[in-house]
Amino acid sequence: MNSYPPPNHEHIDEQMVKMEVNLDDIPGEWLGYVMDILFEAGANDVFYTPIYMKKNRPGVLLQLLCHKNNMDQMKEILLKETTTLGIRYFPITVHRMERKFIKVETKWGAITVKQGINDGEVFQSSPEYEECKAIAKRHNVPLKKVYEQVWQALAKGK
Amino acid sequence: MNSYPPPNHEHIDEQMVKMEVNLDDIPGEWLGYVMDILFEAGANDVFYTPIYMKKNRPGVLLQLLCHKNNMDQMKEILLKETTTLGIRYFPITVHRMERKFIKVETKWGAITVKQGINDGEVFQSSPEYEECKAIAKRHNVPLKKVYEQVWQALAKGK
Amino acid sequence: MNSYPPPNHEHIDEQMVKMEVNLDDIPGEWLGYVMDILFEAGANDVFYTPIYMKKNRPGVLLQLLCHKNNMDQMKEILLKETTTLGIRYFPITVHRMERKFIKVETKWGAITVKQGINDGEVFQSSPEYEECKAIAKRHNVPLKKVYEQVWQALAKGK
Amino acid sequence: MNSYPPPNHEHIDEQMVKMEVNLDDIPGEWLGYVMDILFEAGANDVFYTPIYMKKNRPGVLLQLLCHKNNMDQMKEILLKETTTLGIRYFPITVHRMERKFIKVETKWGAITVKQGINDGEVFQSSPEYEECKAIAKRHNVPLKKVYEQVWQALAKGK
Amino acid sequence: MNSYPPPNHEHIDEQMVKMEVNLDDIPGEWLGYVMDILFEAGANDVFYTPIYMKKNRPGVLLQLLCHKNNMDQMKEILLKETTTLGIRYFPITVHRMERKFIKVETKWGAITVKQGINDGEVFQSSPEYEECKAIAKRHNVPLKKVYEQVWQALAKGK
Amino acid sequence: MNSYPPPNHEHIDEQMVKMEVNLDDIPGEWLGYVMDILFEAGANDVFYTPIYMKKNRPGVLLQLLCHKNNMDQMKEILLKETTTLGIRYFPITVHRMERKFIKVETKWGAITVKQGINDGEVFQSSPEYEECKAIAKRHNVPLKKVYEQVWQALAKGK
User: What is the pLDDT of residues B44-70, one digit of tens each?
Assistant: First the structure.
């Protein structure tokens, strides 16, 4: 289990922007697409919440997180790809842990684990989903088993 | 506090039908309308649940309860007013309490209370929402206060 | 298809207030009423989100958007009509598109379409729900068909 | 706008099975994968609902629809890929509309539209999402515009 | 890591009953209590789903699973402790895995792990939540760490 | 019905902090525990919302409200007890009503009622849930009946 890229000293407690849009006149089908487009354009996070809107309408609250200088691009996508007539936003601070990537060995090959580090202490160890998924598919094993092997390898490394 | 219409001896443990539709390509705006139309056409209940569908789509599960001989009309409305290509259904038994309607006096006038009765015992006493709302509007008092007066009148009547 | 009222040059990127209340001791029945009352009193938007509160309680998060000088009235309604003991709020900026209203012809008569305009470009064209609904009811046609006719008329007008 | 494959006379009002699993000890990350695996294995539909479980746990209700002779395979996937200790199921009838696929022309090329037909009448016309998405990506236009063009072409064809 | 009680050969594919109640006039506060009472009275599962009901009401769908001969007790609790005027139910089959309880050693003492077994194969290994929680509290360690130790012990035992 | 402790003149319109975490790789089981731990450590409120995250993942948005000087402790718990790699936060103002506690008599003994007071007017009267629950359990009566008696006693006291 070796250190993989050097620790990534991100800025911590960064200023970002949360944008919000309420949607009650768009098919859900389009919203799956909108999420992808926003991530591709650099949104740091995008997520939906089911909401109850006026006139008995099941709606969706779209929330996204981005950097201030990315706001115009986000606005443009929201105007073009959704049906909204308005966009709300407010500043939000993000405390982001340092991330470090390590490799652990499983019987199906090495898998990257993203570690979350705060003040030098490792708090999180998340196996990379896409790599685990690729192995699960290739070797026809449950995804659950792949994660278990990674956790086991992490435990042995301690 | 007098007995209003005579107790309503409904059939208990009745056979009914639950119908279900998954929707991911309809605007929420239409769904508010669809609910009204279904109730008007005799649905015994209609409600929506937010669901997570394939391809990251926030969808809506429409569920409705109706009598077997009302199914064709419900199907027709669902085909005409929603975007679905299929409708699921299964039999469901409903244990319905007997209902009795009484009148209680408040300082703003009499209000109907729907009582739920099982084996002769009163389990529920629900002030009629529309009447409470009308009084709240007419007298410019909080709806909460209207309900409180009804509960108080019910308590005194015991 | 003629321009109806002249474009409405609203202030863009306006300062507003988001207010929030967590509710776990109010019947859902009252919340339908509360939403109406808040809109009538000038809330710019009101919506509910299902939340998981302490002690296994399914609760509701009420969110509303209003102008700063409308806050006192909103607070008063929330105190009077809900069961809350506290109200949270924070400033939020709203980027609102210019709105223009046009009329399009359908076989059932003219219907208003609200257009959302940004930097002179039309991004949204939303048929007015209440007018479409009225026509659907009057002519006994699916709401879906009414919207389709409006979209068709908009397409021809291009 | 030509008829594409001949109408597909599916069996209507088919007997199927709804399976259900409550999950409170699985990461959401795995559930995205589980949905894909179930669809690939022939589930007719799979969707998630957020639920409130005991001990204040936000859980997920997995529901799937399949044919009776596909149940064993579904069970096996659920046991292998989720953390459940039990699976519920019950018979459910599905009224499925006949489907017909037509092609409509847009300025970016032909797009398939799936039509839902009941007793010879066309109730639904759904542009194929994947084709619209591919065009939106390739031509760098909003998905919304692609759908609009399809609706317009459908209207002209009438 | 020893086998703890002998495997529990439960009946598999058992006939049970699902009961459902829609609630729009009950405070969430009471529902936390109702869930506990139902579990204490022998419900096999109880869970809530947020639903959209008529007149813009955020409601709750209560679902419970019980044995047929437990239905009367469930009905009585639902009538007494909620505000419902009706209860729906239908038969449902439950495929329940065999359960076996094993003990694994951690540095804070032994912890029970519930195993889910199907046709002799172990599919699930769930550390007992209450025991992990008790250790987390007593030793002032994150619950996450306790689970990790259990998983590690399980891995070594293989 | 006597005044119990003297009115509690809390600071009104206080500055607080809302913290938010998106979670898609944690079992729901742990989240029940996390909520308790956060309350015990002094969070003023904690609640969960179901969200739709990327890659079809049903996730959970954890929101908490705390005082500025309690933030570090909250952060530490979130890092230790959840799987998050980041925490968002922003300032929020809380308008909190004055609270006064009174006692009312029921046939099962006295029960505390929390009153919410604004500018000297009583807006809310909430029976203390834990006391009502204890009486319901001890005397084997529905919780609903206990609340009804309290409301009745409050009405008589007016």
Answer: 999 999 999 999 999 999 999 999 999
Q: Say what the pLDDT of residue E156 is.
A: 78
Instruction: Identify the CA nearest to D19 among candidates D72, D77, D62, D49.
Output: D62
8 A C-beta contact, residue D81 and residue D37? yes
Taking only the tens place, the pLDDT of each residue in D14-56 is: 999 999 999 999 999 999 999 999 999 999 999 999 999 999 9
Contact (Cβ atoms closer than 8 angstroms) between residue C66 and residue C118: no
Q: Rounded mean pLDDT of D83-90? A: 97
Residues A35, B56: C-beta atoms closer than 8 Å: yes
pLDDT, tens only, A116-158: 999 899 999 999 999 999 999 999 999 999 999 998 888 877 6
**The length of chain B, given as a count of residues:** 158
Residue F156: the pLDDT is 78
pTM: 0.93
Residue contact A86–C96, C-beta within 8 A: yes
Q: What is the number of other CB atoms lying within 10 angstroms of the CB of residue A75?
A: 17
Closest alpha carbon to F16 in F88, F87, F89, F99: F89
pLDDT at E158: 62
F24 vs E67: CA distance, rounded Å: 34
**Mutation for testing the C interface, residue in E56, E60, E62, E83 having most C CBs under 10 Å:** E56
What phi, psi does E81 have (nearest 5°)? Answer: -100, -15
Q: Does E83 touch chain B (CB under 8 A)?
A: yes
Closest CA to A47 of F20, F133, F100, C13: F20
Facing residue for A52 by CB, picked from E52, E151, E155: E52
CA distance E109 to E103: 10
Task: List b or e across C123-144, with b for residues whose CB sees 16 or more CB atoms inside 10 angstroms.
Answer: bbbbbebebbbebbeeeeebbb
Is the Cβ of D81 closer than 8 Å to some Cβ of chain A? yes
F87-122: burial string, b at 16+ Cβ within 10 Å, e else: bbbeebbbbbbbbbebbbebebeebbbbbbbbeeee
Distance between F70 CA and the closest CA of chain B, angstroms:
35
Query: Could you tell me which chains touch chain F, where touching means 3 or more CB pairs under 8 A?
Result: A, B, C, D, E
Nearest Cβ partner for E56 among A50, A56, A155: A56
CB count, 10 Å around CB of E107? 10
What is the ipTM for the molecules in this complex?
0.90
Helical spans, DSSP H, in D7-128: 28-40, 71-81
Nearest to F47 among C25, C51, C84 (CB): C51
Comparing C-alpha atoms, which of A88, E90, F106, C17 is closest to residue B90? E90
The confidence score (pLDDT) of residue B57 equals 97
- Report chain A residues whose CB lies below 8 A from the CB of D30: 143-144, 147
Helix H, strand E, coil C: the string for D99-113 is EEEEEEEECCEEEEE
Distance CA(B80)–CA(B68), nearest Å, equals 20
What is the least distance, in Å, from the CA of A158 to any CA of chain B?
A: 37
Q: What is the mean pLDDT of each run of 10 residues along chain B (158 residues)?
A: 41 89 97 98 98 97 98 97 97 96 96 95 96 97 95 81
H or E segment and range at residue C117: strand C109-118
For chain E, give the number of residues. Answer: 158
pLDDT class for A45, splitting at 50, 70, 90? very high
Q: Which of E61, E85, E88 sits opposite B124 (nearest CB)?
A: E85
Check CB contact under 8 Å for B58 and F52: yes
Per-residue pLDDT, D156:
78
- Residues F12-25 have a mean pLDDT of 95
Q: Tell whether B23 lies on the interface with A, counting CB pairs under 8 A.
A: yes
CA atoms within 13 A on the CB side of A152: 15
Nearest CA in chain B to E26: B126
C-alpha F73/C-alpha D31 separation (Å) is 31
